[in-house]
Amino acid sequence: MDLNKSIKKAKRKQLVTISCVSIIIFLTMSGMLVFILDKVATNNYHELDQSLFTYQTIASPNTQIDSQVIANSSILGGEVVTNQSKNIDGYMVPWSSLRSKYSVLGNEIDYNELLPSWYHSSKNSYEYNRQTKQKVATFYNPAIENYYDGVKNELEELKNMDDSLAEVAISFDQPYLYSEVKKMFPENVNVVWLYLFSEERDESQGPAGMPVYGFQLSVDEENRIFDAEADKDYFFSSFETYISPTLNKEMAAFIQDNQNKKVDDLEVLGVMVTGQVKNLTALKDKPFVRGSSIGVTVPMVSYITPEK
User: Fold this and answer.
1) How many contiguous H segments (helices) and E segments (strands) does the chain have?
2) Record keywords: Transmembrane included (predicted)?
3) How far apart are CA 214 and CA 236, in angstroms?
4) CB 109 within 8 A of CB 144
């Protein structure tokens, strides 16, 4: 009888021990799983965060990131909300906000809002921002001869916009060295972004959707360009990071041929300029202008002074 009690007691003790060990193993494994999932999701977040800043650095003419924060976060993933703006000669204008996603499975940039849409009718053809509905300025590659609807010159249209500011994409008739570009524009116009590269595609049937690559020129409080050499170095290091997963030979060749050049020796295909429309219209007859495309425009107000 005592033997049976001892056996039952031993079995209960063994059962309790097994249960406790199982619970401990379950909790430990659950904790490890949570840790691993969180680690993977966090790594994918950091990759997404860097990718967004990288793209903005190399392919977003006159666009800046004002804030980039996490939303709806969990151990499995979340969203990265990116708020952007444009500087139009000292006037800050809202641009599209992006909601990119990351998870334990990877990450995904919000290209639907990042890339422009295209409006086309019998009277109009232009790209526009999906959120703000503002027109997006278009660059023309000097190596591409035929564009759908031709190469437009819209600087003339600015004369009808009194007391306004604008950004305009100026596409050159041929590549010019940056040392030459610095002498091509008057002091009352801001040269804010350099267009250096885009892939050559057939544009005769409509926009091929090829991004333009280049970099923003940093300015000081007096609105003077102060370190274009550093801007160039940061552009090429970011561009290398951007293309590393793609193995794009055309982009790799561009980097190889240009990254060790001084900024003054870089060939520039066009520029984004900003300023008062009365100053920008003076560029319309310049011989180096192959095409010009108006982007964001904003009316002047008495309580904000244009930079130029």
Assistant:
1) 6, 11
2) yes
3) 9
4) no
For 224-276, what is each residue's pLDDT tens digit? 888 999 999 999 999 999 988 777 889 999 999 999 999 999 999 999 999 99
Q: Could you tell me the two tokens for 215?
A: 């970099």
Separation between Cα atoms, residue 307 and residue 6, nearest integer Å: 92
CA distance 295 to 288: 20
**Both tokens assigned to 251:** 């982009």
Which residues make Cβ contacts (< 8 Å) with residue 296, sequence separation at least 6? 86, 88, 93, 134, 135, 137, 166, 167
CA-to-CA distance for 226 and 239, rounded, in angstroms?
A: 22
Domain ranges within the chain, ordered by starting residue: 119-299
Reported as a single tens digit per residue, the pLDDT across 187-197 is: 999 999 999 99
CA-wise closest residue to 237 among 215, 270, 268, 264: 215
H or E stretch at 2: helix 2-59
Q: How far apart are the C-alpha atoms of 306 and 88, rounded to whole Å?
A: 8
Residue 137: CB atoms within 10 Å: 27
Residue at token pair 């290398």: 240
Strand partners, 239: none
The widest CA-to-CA distance across the chain, in whole angstroms, is: 113
Phi, psi at residue 127, to the nearest 5°?
Answer: -95, 150
C-beta of residue 64 within 8 angstroms of C-beta of residue 84 = yes
**Identity of the amino acid at 143:** A
